[in-house]
Amino acid sequence: MAYVVAPNIEPFRKGQTFATWIRRLTYHFRVNKVQDNDKKDQMFLLGGDYLFSEAEKLYPTEALLDEVSYEVLVQKLRERLDRTDSVLLQRYHFSSKLQQAGESASDFIFSLKLQAEHCEFGDQKNRLILDRLLVGLSDTKLKHRLLTEDSAKLTLEQAEKIIATWEMAATHTKALANNEDVGLVDHGWKRGDDYRSSNPNPAR
């Protein structure tokens, strides 16, 4: 099997265009000089869980998956993953999107961008993504933070920066809170305890 000498590509994610991802994979093969008989293995190694699960639906046994050629497999996956609905239906899916439980705001933006690629929004794409983002966010405090910006000047790029900063601050706050709890446990206290009650001779 060929050795990987160039950076790997991102795994295929649900909602992406498979044809585009395969084109990137082809460049990866070329740079790494991957032999034809190794391409299927490389695709599964780089493609991630979702792509492999879709291939298993087409070829449910290990024997069938081993026997199918790389070219045939790619064609079958393209037919399965790149089925296109009408633009009207794609726009309906876009306008119905809401941030899901466990989905970060950054991932929600990524999901909106992927869906927008099929909606033919033209020059209005970023503005419509921003509008849907403001409606679909589940964090009301973050939503309020974005709405305090000048709506005439706020761009999708600026919103992404605000969200990235917000999520980073939330991560740091959570980490600090966890560290404080560990410190309290080390001293035999718990959050809410009165320090004076555990110190019979407080300094006067």
CATH topology of the largest domain: Non-ribosomal Peptide Synthetase Peptidyl Carrier Protein, Chain A
Q: In CATH's first tier, which class of the largest domain applies? A: Mainly Alpha
Count of discrete alpha- or pi-helical segments spanning 4 or more residues: 9
| General shape | globular
Give the number of DSSP strands. Answer: 0
Work out the helicity level.
Answer: 55-70%
Tally of domains: 2
Beta-strand residue fraction = under 5%
Integer-rounded radius of gyration: 25 Å
The residue ranges in which pLDDT falls below 50 over 5 or more consecutive positions are none
Give the terminus-to-terminus CA distance.
75 Å
Main beta-sheet strand count, sense and barrel state: none
Organism: Aedes aegypti
Protein name: AAEL001226-PA
What brief labels describe this structure?
204 residues, mainly alpha, Non-ribosomal Peptide Synthetase Peptidyl Carrier Protein, Chain A, 2 domains, 9 helices
Report on this model:
It is a single chain. Helix content is 61%, strand content 0%. With 204 residues, it is mainly α. The longest helix has 31 residues, at 156-186. 13% of the residues are buried. The model has no long low-confidence stretch (mean pLDDT 86). This is AAEL001226-PA.
